């Protein structure tokens, strides 16, 4: 078949950093109401158990409702839509929404083609809700979330989300608000500096650990730093937007780590460069894109050994998989010298 391709294919996306303590509050509610994850987070499981024990009876009631219905996801969607600076403005704008518009904003965004069904569901159409639930039936909790939005009184749900944010802020965030905001701001500024010199794909990879390639319909990637969910990156979708709530870097947490412990990213890149075979492989790839077979033949090593070396180089961001070949990423070395200097000349406590 002969094909004349006149289509436009998106080659990149815009990346933007957005920092707010309100996202931290919503993610905090997500973490606290998902105990299966507690043993895998930066802080020990006991920390989250103690945090839950500190909750007032009012907040505990809201957390139980959140745990049953995954309303933290609804809260995140509202925060993105309303973009409020204060809890007072969030409460006011949330109350000002019609029941239909409120339901539309808290129903999960699935894809552009399903936005009409989302709108119909928000207006009370059960067929629209069923279309959404059928489309995401393999998702861990979206079908139940859609059902809950449809069957729970909108005003009850609205009051719950406002109370959850207000009580979390008052009981857990108030004493740490300034420190938390400063850490999030410091990390956001670091990522904004990356975006001035790196490609969006490289900045997203370094911030999140996710190699996110451009995809149809996605024009923007939002990078939102968090502390509470470290070391996990949480991925979400909004219209024409991919969202990554990513863990702040070690360097954004002064005083909370050993100053003599090097940042993991710095260790990764020097470990990758500190091996003769990996440097030879990198030199070959820097000359032109190479397949695994080409590298195996050129290096005179076994396939498994070469694959291991390539995995180390990929983890450090030095190379990328491009089609069926490995390609050099020259931007990967832009910041390592500065990061090494910052580590060596930073504050010393001993």
Automatic annotation (TrEMBL):
<dbReference type="InterPro" id="IPR011991">
    <property type="entry name" value="ArsR-like_HTH"/>
</dbReference>
<keyword id="KW-0805">Transcription regulation</keyword>
<dbReference type="GO" id="GO:0003700">
    <property type="term" value="F:DNA-binding transcription factor activity"/>
</dbReference>
<dbReference type="InterPro" id="IPR036390">
    <property type="entry name" value="WH_DNA-bd_sf"/>
</dbReference>
<dbReference type="InterPro" id="IPR001845">
    <property type="entry name" value="HTH_ArsR_DNA-bd_dom"/>
</dbReference>
<dbReference type="InterPro" id="IPR036388">
    <property type="entry name" value="WH-like_DNA-bd_sf"/>
</dbReference>
<protein>
    <recommendedName>
        <fullName>HTH arsR-type domain-containing protein</fullName>
    </recommendedName>
</protein>
<dbReference type="GO" id="GO:0003677">
    <property type="term" value="F:DNA binding"/>
</dbReference>
<keyword id="KW-0804">Transcription</keyword>
<dbReference type="InterPro" id="IPR051081">
    <property type="entry name" value="HTH_MetalResp_TranReg"/>
</dbReference>
<keyword id="KW-0238">DNA-binding</keyword>
<feature type="domain" description="HTH arsR-type">
    <location>
        <begin position="256"/>
        <end position="350"/>
    </location>
</feature>
<dbReference type="Pfam" id="PF01022">
    <property type="entry name" value="HTH_5"/>
</dbReference>
């Amino acid at each position: 078949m002969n094909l004349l391709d006149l289509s436009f294919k998106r080659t990149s996306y815009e990346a933007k950093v957005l920092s707010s303590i309100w996202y931290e509050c919503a993610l905090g509610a997500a973490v606290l109401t998902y105990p299966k994850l507690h043993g895998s987070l930066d802080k020990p499981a006991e920390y989250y158990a103690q945090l839950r024990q500190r909750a007032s009876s009012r907040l505990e009631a809201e957390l139980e409702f959140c745990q049953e219905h995954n309303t933290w996801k609804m809260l995140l969607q509202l925060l993105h839509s309303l973009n409020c600076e204060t809890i007072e403005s969030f409460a006011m704008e949330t109350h000002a929404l019609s029941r239909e518009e409120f339901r539309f904003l808290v129903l999960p965004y699935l894809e552009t083609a399903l936005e009409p069904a989302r709108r119909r569901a928000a207006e009370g159409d059960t067929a629209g809700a069923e279309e959404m639930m059928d489309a995401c039936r393999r998702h861990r909790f979206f079908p139940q979330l859609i059902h809950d939005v449809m069957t729970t009184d909108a005003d009850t749900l609205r009051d719950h989300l406002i109370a959850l944010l207000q009580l979390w802020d008052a009981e857990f965030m108030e004493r740490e608000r300034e420190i938390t905001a400063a850490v999030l701001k410091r990390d956001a500024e670091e990522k904004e500096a990356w975006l001035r010199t790196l490609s969006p794909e490289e900045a997203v990879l370094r911030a999140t650990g996710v190699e996110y390639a451009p995809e149809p319909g996605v024009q923007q990637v939002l990078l939102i730093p968090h502390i509470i969910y470290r070391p996990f990156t949480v991925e979400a979708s909004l219209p024409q937007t991919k969202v990554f709530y990513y863990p702040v870097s070690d360097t954004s947490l002064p005083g909370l780590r050993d100053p003599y412990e090097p940042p993991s990213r710095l260790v990764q890149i020097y470990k990758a460069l500190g091996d003769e075979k990996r440097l030879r492989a990198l030199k070959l790839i820097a000359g032109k894109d190479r397949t695994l077979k080409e590298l195996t033949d050129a290096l005179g090593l076994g396939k498994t050994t070469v694959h291991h070396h390539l995995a180390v180089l990929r983890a450090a961001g030095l190379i990328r998989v491009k089609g069926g070949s490995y390609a050099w990423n020259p931007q990967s070395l832009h910041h390592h010298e500065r990061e090494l200097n910052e580590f060596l000349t930073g504050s010393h406590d001993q």
